[in-house]
Amino acid sequence: MSRAVDLFFLFSTEKNFVREKDFVLNLLENLGFSIFERGYLKIPSNAFSPSRKQFNAGLILSYLSQLKKSEVALGITKEDIYFGDLNFVFGLASPTSLLALVSLLRLDPVFYGFPQDEVLYFSRIEKEITHEIGHVFGLLHCNNPLCVMSFSNSVFDVDRKTKDFCQTCLKNFRKKSV
Fold first, then answer.
1. CATH number for the domain running over 3-177
2. Tell me: the pLDDT tens digits for 150-178?
3. pTM of this prediction?
4. E strand residue ranges, the chain
5. How far is CA 176 from CA 35, 124, 170, in A?
């Protein structure tokens, strides 16, 4: 039996998720979710920090918690996000609220001044969505640097890990997500 997930595409200015939308839908389906696409939503202005020029991921998750109708909700954005004292985060999840948010901005090689590389970009998206969904179901960061649940402090860490859970994390994910 699959779990239901609400999928939101969040924006402040750019509403274009054409390249990513089908990929995200397929990934969630492969992870065993029934998907309810909830469309495009403007990020609340109070989530933006003018001094940081970034969006507060915690405030965005709070916003999603008010809108979700399914058991799980996932927000995808192309905005730069942060949480707490961290300079940035690729994503954030709440296992208690069953919410996750992933920013695509820093996963795109173009952000770092490199040419567009679709294979690398989508590989990073898959890893980070899988990682945050793992957190939604209670998985913690893994010490295995190849496990998708290993902590990513930089895009190089994202590139180093695989898209898969290690055996221990996979066992725990299956136990908690069924």
1. 3.40.390.10
2. 999 999 999 999 999 999 999 999 887 65
3. 0.95
4. 3-11, 33-42, 48-49, 54-56, 72-77, 81-82, 91-94, 99-103
5. 19, 24, 10
Place of tokens 């779990």: 3
For residue 7, the one-letter residue type is L
The letter for the amino acid at 39 is G
Give pLDDT < 50 ranges for the chain: 1
Among residues 79, 126, 128, 132, the one annotated as catalytic is 132
Any idea where the domains of the chain sit in the sequence? 3-177
What is residue 138's DSSP assignment?
T
Which residue matches tokens 């898959």? 126
Q: What is the SS3 assignment for 134?
A: helix
79 given a catalytic annotation: no
What does the H/E/C string look like for 43-76? CCHHHEECCCCEEEHHHHHHHHHHHCCCCEEEEE
